[in-house]
Amino acid sequence: MVRWVGIKCAQGQVIVIQLPWKGLRGHITNRIGQLQGLRKLSLHDNQIGGSIPIALGLLPNLRGVQLFNNMFTGTIPSSLGFCPLLQSLDISNNLLTGTIPHSLGNSTKLYWLNLSFNSLSGSLPSSLTHSASITFLSLQHNNLSGSIPNSWSGSQLREVSLSHNQFSGAIPNEIGSLSRLKTIDFSNNALNGSLPETLSNLSSLTLLNVENNHLGNQIPEALGRLHNLSVLILSRNQFVSHIPHSIGNISTLIQLDLSLNNLSGEIPVSFGNLSSMNFFNVSYNNLSGPVPTLLAKKFNSSSFVGNIQLCGYSPSTPCPSESPSEGQGILAPPAERLKHHHHKKLGTKDIILIAAGVLLAVLITLCCILIFCLSRRRSTSNTESGQATGTAAPTRTQKGVPAAAGEVDAGDDNNGGKLVHFDGPLAFTANDLLCATAEIMGKSTYGTVYKATLEDGSQAAVKRLREKITKGQREFESEVSVIGRIRHPNLLALRAYYLGPKGEKLLVFDYMPKGSLASFLHGNPQLLNMAMFENFIFVSFMNIVISPLHSF
């Protein structure tokens, strides 16, 4: 039987085409309609242009289409809505225009629909909100307009994102009937009216984001019944009146942003019970009174600024003198006031300075030891490499790089690429890696990070380095071999690397499902959540410890 990389056949028919990250160009022709047995088409992360062929929607066995991160233009073929077995359609991050076909909502098997990051226009088809099969609907970052349909009967819908569009009008009450809904993101639109009280019926809801709209009136007290809610973002709207006390009863709340509204009154005392919260912002409202002690200690002044009558959140915003019942008011004896003043000075100045000095001394000592050990290891590695060059040529790998301890050359793929494993639980071939389902986790100057799911269900984080900033193959392999041997409980281990036939460079790490250092440190990029002193110590330590690692 004839086999090609990324192509699977059965009974003389092509059933799977998986060619992601191949640098493919050109376009897909209507001749693809001749592959009547095709079940899955995965060509994501290439440079394919042109329009999506109409014939693609005429394939009776088609189940999955992943064409995201390409350069497709034109409109979405309405024929895709007539594929009787279509389950997943992801054509996000392209250059598509035109409207969303109504026919997509008629597909009875379709559960995953991602059309985000295009230039689609027009309204949201009511057929999508009527769909009984769709569980994931992502339309963010387009030019969609009009009102959000009132008819929402999608009993299976779990995530809906319409952010960064031009939707207007009110949020329909009918959304409160979607009992399985976990995520609502309607941020950065032009929605107005009130926040529906029916949202309190969504007992499974974990995220509600309506930031940067024109919503007004009072925040519903009923939101306090959302006992699974972890993220509530209502900032940059026109909400008025007081903050509901019931929100303080949501013990699962991690992020709360009510900034840039017209809220008044005091911050509810119940907010002091939200011990799990790592991001809080009520800045630029009309709030007054004292800030609850827990919030004042946990969050810096940027969470509260812009409220002229708010006090107690920083040394420059003291509240009126404390109650005499606490024994330290103006009626307390002079000796007691002097004793309290002396105790406060020791608690806020001397103790912190002493602790800071001791901690810095310990950290500097540990860093010096680490730098010394790394320098010796690097020197030893260079010496062994030089000896191997002169006397042990047979121990070199096929590419001329010394084999490092713990490395296993997984062999070349059918296109001439090279996959090298380090020690770890992951075991896969180059073809398995290149055909894995990929989801973008982030982008930077140095490359793109993907969440890769292999065919056996295992997951890994894969970073594809940009070709223009990476080094030559021999120098790259030498440095990666050193990094691959480093093991530390606070460093993510490098499990494998792949060198493609055209110079592609992939680094494979363990997938960490609980977020990044940035999310732990900041929670939200708009605000620093740790205390200033804790940040100074933490960043100083990270700078000293990580800088010698970069020298490798």
UniProtKB/TrEMBL annotation:
Show the SUPFAM superfamilies listed in the entry. L domain-like (SSF52058), Protein kinase-like (PK-like) (SSF56112)
Any one GO CC term of this protein is: membrane
* Compartment(s) where it occurs, according to its Swiss-Prot or TrEMBL record: Membrane
Q: What is its main location?
A: membrane
Mind listing the UniProt keywords for this protein, alphabetically? ATP-binding, Glycoprotein, Leucine-rich repeat, Membrane, Nucleotide-binding, Phosphoprotein, Receptor, Repeat, Signal, Transmembrane, Transmembrane helix
Where do transmembrane segments lie in this chain?
351-374
Q: Where is composition skewed (Polar residues) in this entry? A: 381-398
UniProt keyword Ubl conjugation present: no
InterPro entries (UniProt xref): Kinase-like_dom_sf (IPR011009), Leu-rich_rpt (IPR001611), Leu-rich_rpt_typical-subtyp (IPR003591), LRR_dom_sf (IPR032675), Prot_kinase_dom (IPR000719), Ser-Thr/Tyr_kinase_cat_dom (IPR001245), Ser/Thr_kinase-like (IPR052451)
- Annotated Protein kinase domain residues: 435-552
Membrane protein topology class: Single-pass membrane protein
Chain spans, region Disordered: 381-401
| Ranges in a coiled coil | none
Top-rank taxon: Eukaryota
Enumerate the GO terms in the molecular function aspect. Answer: ATP binding; protein kinase activity
- Stated family: Belongs to the RLP family.
Would you tell me the protein name for this molecule? Protein kinase domain-containing protein
- Write the lineage as a comma-separated list: Eukaryota, Viridiplantae, Streptophyta, Embryophyta, Tracheophyta
